[in-house]
Hints:
Keywords: Transferase. By secondary structure, the chain is an alpha/beta fold. Helix content is 33%, strand content 11%.
Amino acid sequence: MADTAAQSLDDYTFEYKGFNFPKDEITPECIDSLEDFEIRDSDVFIVTYPKSGTVWTQQILTLIYAEEDADAAEFKTTYERAPWLEFQEKGQDYNARPSPRLFASHLPYYLVPKSLRNKKAKVIYIVRNPKDAMVSYFHFHNIMVKMEKTKDFSSFMDKYVNGKGTIGDWKNTFTVAQSEFFDKVFQQKMKDLPLKFIWDINEDAA
């Protein structure tokens, strides 16, 4: 049951070009400005679906970038180390960042800078077992102050797999029926994905 004190989706997000964004952090003008953002060949982009290990990857790569100055990197925020391309804070000039620049993003392909398609910049795409990502998103969703609370996992799952919505061990959260339903939807929607997820460590034992 939704928490009556929670804000509605429209109170804290807006839809732009088919994608939902948080109102307090992003504007349509900011998204439009990315179209002509100049990409450098040395740029590296961490691209993920939410709750797929973005922050972990940011931490790992920034420590690699820091090399012998890893201790100094520890005192910087994640945003300072690897800022979100679409969450540009006021006063921040990404063009002034020294190369090699590291960015993170949840943006779909059609909203990324057009020059990214013609440059040698590297894109690191992180994929997580989608069931784990969904369970992680469920817990994250319920601790966020601005998000509508959904205590019932079945209701959350229905919204998630049907694209109606805005951590942990999925085997202890999904029922057998829910797991089978998710597999069916995933196989239908991702049939052309050239990746195989191992749901069970013994699955490929033979």
